Amino acid sequence: HTILSNTVVSPLAADAAVLRIKGTERGIAVKTDCNPRYVYLDPYLGGIHAVVEAARNVSCTGAEPLAVTNCLNFGSPEKPEGYFQLQQAVRGMSAACRALDTPVVSGNVSLFNETGNEAILPTPTIGVVGLLEQVTSHATMAANAGDTLILMGESVATLGASEYLATIHGQTIGAPPPVDLEQERAVQTLTRSLIREGVVKTAHDTSEGGLLVALAEVAFASQCGVNVDLSVLQEVNDQRLDRTMFGEAASRIIVAVTESQVAAVLSAAAQAGVQAFVLGNVTGTDLVVRDVTSVTLDAAQQSWRNGLRG
Fold this sequence. Notes:
Layout lengths: L6 E3 L7 E4 L6 E7 L2 H6 L1 H17 L4 E10 L6 H21 L3 E7 L3 E2 L2 E2 L3 E10 L15 E6 L9 H6 L12 H16 L5 E4 L4 H13 L3 E3 L2 H6 L4 H6 L5 E6 L4 H11 L3 E7 L3 E4 L3 E4 H9 L5
Parallel strand pairs: 4-5, 11-14
Antiparallel strand pairs: 1-2, 2-3, 3-8, 4-8, 6-7, 9-12, 9-13, 10-12, 11-13, 14-15
């Protein structure tokens, strides 16, 4: 990403990388994505998720998703289960691309990925490219101390197919989160509009790991703690704290705005038919969930940075 000096927003600084187009005011945002666990448990729904999450990440920079490419990594299509996974995943990808007006302009396949009689998890990796008319008008994951955190979109999460179940309980079970494609489009359109208008400069979607992981990632990018109250979300998640903090859902994005812009964001969300919840603030040096738990930013960041070391 350092080659040719075109990178405006580097990987991990935002949900997608942003590059300038030399000689113009334009930029592009690019992202690849897939959750193989979702596709394994429900190939059709998993195919939808792969497309909408990649597009959502591009939208979180302010760029409008334009087109999709893919690399379809599967086991043997000569086996009924392998053929079913491939066919259903492609159907799901097609449904999502039609809903978001993102044509598939290229792609390839990598089949027969098996060792012995065991196939890899089906992994239709999706790449999305989006356009920023003004490359300087983009958003990242970094917020400023004092900013207000707002969750836009879906309030109900599920533990099915989640990172929490796999990591904490060692189980790959359950149904992935449902996707309402109209709601997905509305959330992404709203986010891009708020970024383009300069109201929002910080946006991050919630995906693997759920809401608390996404909040921690915002804190890491901001190098500042967060203090949030999740009681309202806990109510709509059957008072399940694990589901509230670590459950996963489509069509939701965290934004951070100045206090003076909170009313404008809530009003815009209401007009767009999108739910919006004030979560708390970017402040201090800890990750605080009020009346539940607190961990220092340093401790959380050490775990995040060194996770592959066991």
